[in-house]
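As practice, study what follows.
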Amino acid sequence: MLKTKRLILREWKAKDASQLFKLASNPNISRPCGFLTHKNEEDSKGVIKNILKKPEHYAIILKARNCIVGSINLKLKNISALARRNNEVELGYFIGESFWGKGYAKEACRKLIEHAFLDLNIKTIWASHKYDNVKSLNLLESLNFKYIYSKILYMPAINRNYVAAIRMLKRGGQNYGKKYKI
């Protein structure tokens, strides 16, 4: 479990299916993220069981309302389309549409990046976004992710390719210690 001022990042639980369904049944969330829009709570239960119950996958909980506002993860080398070494991960996230514009994605990303660099000894964090996903572009730029190249990525859940901007954040310097701030 990871905590910020307003958020808790914790592992997904089976009982989260109804809250996940409320977020993931919105095509404004599923389309840019490249997953199938959830049709019912059973879809959400299956996603929790088969996809979200992996290491470094977190539900984003808003402390003030004790509700799930999104999802965030670090995909390790074996499940990432971008990370190729053991000390690399790929960052993924989404925030429910009714929670957009409140800074939750940036707050959660900062905490997970800090966790990756300090606790997991990760050296490189990759991220991608569709070219038309301006919200992700702005978020990643605000977190100092640098554009590296464009690539066609395959989304197995929707059986489609899309052109993605690939971005990277490197851990700088040798001494990060607990003083590391993003």
